Every structure is written in structure tokens, then in C-alpha cells.
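[step 3/7] fold_predict: job queued, chain A
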Amino acid sequence: MANGTTSGTTDAPSSPSNSTVTSTTQPSFIESLIDKIPLPRWALIAIVIAVGLVLLLLLICIIKCCCCRKKRKKKKKAVDMTSINGPSTTKRLVQPDLEDIECGNEEEEKRGRLQYSLEYDFRSQEMKVGVKQAADLKAMDSGGTSDPYVIVYLTSDIRKKYETKVYRKTLNPVFNESFIFHIPQGDVAENTLVMQVYDFNRFSKHDIIGEMRLPLGDVDLQHVMEQWHELTAASKIEQEHLGEICISLRYVPSTSKLTVVILEAKKLKRMDPNGLSDPYVKVQLILNKKKWKKKKTSVKKNTLSPYFNEAFIFDVPFHLIQNIDLVISVWDSDKVTKDDQIGKLFLGCRATGNQLRHWSDMLANARRPVAQWHNLQPVEDIDKTLGLKTRFKLPLPGS
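[step 4/7] structure written:
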């Protein structure tokens, strides 16, 4: 009996009833926190579900935003690549260039071939260009034929053009005509021979079938050459090379003196029948789009590369220097007829490119002369840009 009593007392702590009481008397932290909230269990479950849905929606939104950003980066990269390959990304995205659209068709389209000959006489400095024949020309008329003829010229003087006879209703005309160009040996390499094949139309504008361009710098003039050349699509009309001029500028703000030195010119356009010109230079100041002061150099006879080295000094107050346009024009002197303008350019704050850079360098380097070469531009383009008003005299000091 004693042994049974002792074993009962030692086994009592491990009884199942006692262990159950211990676990219920020490609740978990979460259960104790839930018990403190004055809401029923179903309300707490509903709140937890609502919060879970909100978090899920937020997660979906974040994922969508990340995807959109990646797409935008890809688009930006594509735009950057087109901007590298082309001059204007925005323009290309809105409307592609017509040249880009037609490029593929022009490469596949056959326009025919032209046979020509070339011979240069070093003694007389004359180039003989022969237009032999054409073959497989593109049909321009509704009847499946063309009325072809050829125009021949050099890029140094695009106004002087030769034309062959017109041959009716044929795609394989035989011309056998030759033309003589007077061109100094030193100017040959800088020229391009252009031959353009046209379709004659009696009552409408003549259509160009195709053209060939031959850079004379790539031609061996020691031998007479004769060969065929594939015609290509006509390029845009090139701007005629009018010549170059070197001028020096100097401005001293303290004395209001603007010094313009006409140094020299080169490669001027030929204006006289002998292939030369009698050039001189006019220097003009424009103030607020109105003509103000002008001076001119002496005339240099029979030359395309005159040397002047003539200086002109103008009084220009410092408060007016920003409103000044300096116009430089090169003229060909004629005793019988009216003098012709060869080319023109202007410098000032309204100018662009090298002209604006030269003017800015002059203002940034006061009292120091700054010299620079400039290409002459067509007179009509400069006059249109300047937009000159009617002439008048300005009542300014020193004028």
C-alpha cells in the first residue's frame, strides 16, 4: 500500500489533465492581442481579407508600372537609333522623307545607259566632251517610247549648258555630237561633268529620264576615254560655286572704329567670254535692315583670284554694333554693260555658320584683327535673308 501511494504522488504531475490546464493558462501573443481588440472574430477576419486585397492590388500596380517603364526605355532606345541615322527624329516619326520612300524604287528602276567620250587638250586647256549614244532608255510617253535629248555642263558654270538634237520616238538614240569646254588645268580636278537625258514634250515641261555625273578628279586626262555609264535618278540642282573671299575684321569699342580689310579672293565665277572676270568688292553697312554706309575696292583686271589688301574704316558706336549687318559683295566690272554681281555674304548677329562665328570672334577679341575665308552665296538668297527696307540717310554721329 505504501509503495502504491508513493508512486501515485510521483506520477501526478505528468497526468494529462494537469498538462492541459498548463497550455490554456499561457495563451500565445497573437491570441492575447486578438482578445484585447473589442471586435468579434468575423469582423477581424473581414478586415484581414480587405487588407490582403488592397496589398494584392498594390502589388499588381507596381508590376504594371515596371513593365511600362521597360517598354518606354525600349522605345527611347529605338528613337535614339533613328536619330543617329537620320537628321530629324521627330520629322521621321511624323512623316518620312519622300526621298526615303522612293529610294528603293529608284535603285530597282532602270533608266538606261549613255555612251560618252572625253578628251582634254593641255595646250589649249580645252575639254572635248562627246555624246555618242544611249540605250535601253526608260519610256516616258504613253506609247512606250521617249523623245530623248542630252544636256551637258560642268558644275563650275552651270549656266553654260550644251544640248544635243531631239530624237523622236526612240529608246536607243544615236547622237554623235561633241562640245568644247574651256577649263584651266588647275580647275579640272574640282569639277564634275554632268550629262542629263531628257524627254522632250511640246506642250508641257520636259521630263528628266536620268543623269550621269563624272568627277573629273578621278579621270586620267592623259588618255582619250570612251565608255558606257548607267543613268541614275536626277539629283537636286547643285548650288553653283561662286568663289571664296578672305576678309579681316577689327573693332575697337573705345574709339567706335570698325576696320574691314578685303584681303583676297579665289576661284571666282567666270563672267567674261575669255573665261575670266574683272572683280571688285563692295563693303556695305546695314543698320536695322536699312542701308547706311558703303565703300568699294579697286577693280582687278582679268583674274579669278584677285589680291586687294584694301582697308576700310567705319565709325560704329558701341551701342549700335549689335544691330549692324556687314554685307560683302563681289562684282564683275563691265565698261559697256551694267556691272554684274558674282556673289554675296553678310556678317553680324543675324548671320549663321562661319559668318556668325567670325563676327563673334571679332567682338570677343577687341582691338585684334581676325581674318577668315568665306564662301560667296547667291545674291538672291542674301537679299531675301536681309529683307532690306527702303533707302534713307541716318542722322548718326560720324556718318
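[step 5/7] annotate
The two ends are 145 Å apart (CA to CA).
The CA atoms of residues 245 and 265 lie 4 Å apart.
exit 0
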